[in-house]
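ingest -> fold -> write
write: protein_1
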Amino acid sequence: MKHGFIKVAAATPDIRVADVDYNKEKICALLREACNEGAKIIVFPELCVTGYTCGDLFTQDILLKAAKEALLEIAGFTKDRDALVFVGVPLSVGGKLYNVAAALNNGKIIGLTTKTFLPNYAEFYEMRQFTPGPDRAQYIQFAGEQVPFGPQILFCDTDMDELIVSAEICEAVWSPVPPSIFAALEGATVIVNCSASDETIGKDTYRRELIAGQSARLIAGYVYANAGEGESTTDVVFGGHNIIAENGTVLKEARRYHNEIIYSEFDLQRIISERRKNTTFQTAEGYSLIRVPFHIKNEKTKLTRQFPRRPFVPSDERARAQRCEEILTIQAMGLKKRLAHTNAKTAVVGISGGLDSTLALLVTARAFDMLDRDKKDIIAVTMPCFGTTDRTYNNACEMSRKTGATLREVPIAEAVNIHFRDIGQDPETHDVTYENSQARERTQVLMDIANRTGGMVIGTGDMSELALGWATYNGDHMSMYGVNASVPKTLVRHLVKYAADETTDEELKKVLYDVLDTPVSPELLPPKDGDIAQKTEDLVGPYELHDFFLYYMLRFGYEPAKIFRLAENVFDGVYDRATILKWLKTFCRRFFSQQFKRSCLPDGPKIGTVALSPRGDWRMPSDACVAVWMKELDEIPLRD
């Protein structure tokens, strides 16, 4: 369970209706298999010890006695097997019959969660045989032990504070107020459901959305184990539709009509982080629910769940196109409001022929279309200097014309050389002063043109650059409205590609595709043989790595070692261990040292769940120390 990961399983055994010994053997066989796979929480379907479809056979003492004996044997089978197991079984208590999810750990029955809501409509008639569980859990004498019996029992791991498990049974999650709500409010991070939900047309979609939605509402992991083949088909068919979901995302889903085990891993640290940040998720006080300790070994979990290499970019092409359209609209709407509010006569955009300025120009053009304004009032300014190449210059000029903007060229080499003379800078010394003087000169030109034309300067810098501080303070760092401020570099590329794919202007399409093929560069050093000499990713590292680091650090508050572990897993075969560690150290060091640049950012629209605005999502002191983060990274060996 290192880094908060815990492996869970939803298992549907082959059964025979009322054949308890057969069912017991099949349950134990799957239990053995799941434990061998490293599952620590294992969930079986509702009433699987007997079969859900026994009907009035549930009134037969011989069946109930066999079920109780089988449960005790299954519990014994868990001894020395490192797992918390939930099994559905009918139990007679106090002269009444209950539908129960029995919790088993280390050879013992540690809790009996009763079914609260008994469906008695359509094909269901559970109230014919069963009694709803009590309103509150209590302790009962069962097989010579005092065992908690009732709803919403909390099973708490003795070594891992984040692992608190609670069970509900089938119909509960379909009810208006599921018991899991109260369990989650008292700290349950994992909800399990022993279910017997039959198949009808379209029900699988509803079931999937229901489980995903409940996990999102509770900010929890949810393991749903459903009855399958082997149940009676007198009137209905069961498909073994098992689902594992976490905070709104389905991590794993079984094939229907194939009894099987599915596995995935919950990220409990992620769940807790989300709850901490969500101030509307108010945990209950008083601890009124019964809490039962259990123990499983705290060991490293082998990861099988998938983590996206580019978490800001949807992998599905259709979803990606929808996301791009939505983002461009948000950016343009933000700028539209600012232009209208300030009565700006023009929008001034510095155009370099790179990705960021291209996106800013495209967004500005959209905003002007929304305002029904002539795009000639967009002043696209290209400012060639020492590092400008013909390729980027020509692309900047051509895209400005094709979008309908007014192109202005202001060469700045002479002004920068005068500035060098004034401050005593040797033009042959290509240091940070050499580079930043150009960036600040460009910003001065843009600001002054905006003043002369009654306009405002549109910022081009993206969120990845802000995270790394890869911007010249009061140079490209500054604008009057930063449309790209919360767009990561990996997403900028896809936004420009989307615009290229969507345009009907073949000449503009050609230019945009060439921009996509151009290396990312500030172009502040002289070209080599006409080509770009200064490539950003050679200096600060690959943006796909930095965006990965940024997402998991800010979105979920992961510690560096956990981010490294995920990156090593996701980028296996792309970057070696030493390379990932090198750039993660660079990211952490720069992220902390460059906060002062983010503390005075211009306004700009938030477009996703991760943003760095000092007025919104990220409020960090400019002089915070990175020592704790670097200490953890320094302890990671370069080799396994």
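write: protein_2
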Amino acid sequence: MPNKLLLATLFGLLMGLSWPVSGFTPLLFIGFVPLLWLFERSKRGKQSTFFWHLYLGFFIWNALTTWWLWNATVFGMFFAMLVNSLLMTLVVLLWRRVDRKLGQKAGLIFIPFAWICFEKMHLVWDFSWPWLNLGNGFATIPNWVQWYEYTGSFGGTLWIWVVNISVFAALKKFMVSKKYVVFVKPALFISIPLLISASILILFEAEQNPALTVTVVQPNIDPYNEKYNLSHQDLYDTLIESIASEFNKKPDLIVTPETYFSEGAGEYLPRFEQSKLYQDLLVFSQKNKMQFLQGIQFYNTYNITNKTNTANKLEDGLWADFYNSAFLTDSTNIHIYHKSKLVVGVETLPYRKFIEPLLGNVMLDFGGTLFTRATQEEREAFPLYNGTKVGPIICYESVYGEFVTEYVRAGATLLAIMTNDAWWGNTPGHRQHLAYARLRAIETRRPILRSANTGISAFISPLGNISSQLEYDKKGVLTASLIPQTKITFYVQYGDYIFRLGGFLAGLMILFTFGRKKN
């Protein structure tokens, strides 16, 4: 039997080597088995020793999958790895409490739902970091998880835990009986969801609505040394030059990446729709019978009497809100959306009212701004001239499943991801980000267009398949015809119900542990 240190290391390696985009996905079905063995062998041991074994395994997993954060910030990488590994370890320690108080069977029921609660926390709290939520592990093989339209990615998390627990139980029985029949149950737990997914693929029929021709722009601008030094006029001229080759395809919509117009513009004072940039885009779009969906930075200024809770102090008596935004040109009305899932340390200071008095404007340097960004309460779907509605998803927002469904409930019949993944360099980071978007397509059954500053721009079908893409560090444009979809999936309608049901059960089990003596 391997020693505990080896089990912890093996667990971390298996999970790290299973992860998109270069991992071997089937390892997800056995990755937690060494952890389960470590858990069983440590039941009567010291909790402090068990803690450090767990922490080692989780740190290896985090390091193998998110090391690329180094390219943006060394401090941020270590902070994310160390804290996330700690949080994962604490979940397992809760499991140990349930196991000791309520028994092994109760513990094995508890851990999948406790883990889902942990993942949900990472989707909603201020230190949000859902990158390693288990359901994301199937992002590069969407044909396995077509049933995400019913469960969302938490269905994948539950699947991984159930299979691992089943494999662990089968291995224990096999060591005694030496009969391979014990592996029938885990084989069924793996194959049944795969068969369901295959049947969905066979039966799926997309709606045959009028097509929309879309052009996405990939400008390939260095965000560290060039992007934030270009004027609106420079970027406007570059944009028009870039899309000239696509005019013969008569695109209905032209999409640029996050903060393409990076110089900044006032949203209200002066009103942006009166600016030269917006008027130039509007005149061009009307002349060519198209619309522009653009990334931009907005700001609003205030004095001490009317400043908002999110405003940043610029100088005495002057405050400002800054926004990472998208806008749509429209001959009758301007449409603006402000990014609302912000990158920790770059665009938001977690628990600002408590931390800011201690740190002031000291932020982690991911290559972003020193100022926090403001958000908006509701998602929006911008109306196009042909009646289609597009949901403008800005960068990090595309990692949040239930959040993205809010665009669909607002009326979006296709989704546009506008992102700048160049901060991480040519690493797995930007490829993982693209892969996760494929899961959002399945959950919502919406076609997705993706405009990235320097890759990977792409078109994704409602089945999660990538039809065309522009690789990293390449300047260019892509044009495709997309068919908007109006069907509302079960997941769009009910959201993260697996968390709500499982979280209730896990919460009850934790409460029961306070009324039981230690076994």
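write: annotation protein_2
Confidence is low (pLDDT under 50) at residues 360-369.
The radius of gyration is 24 Å.
pipeline exit 0
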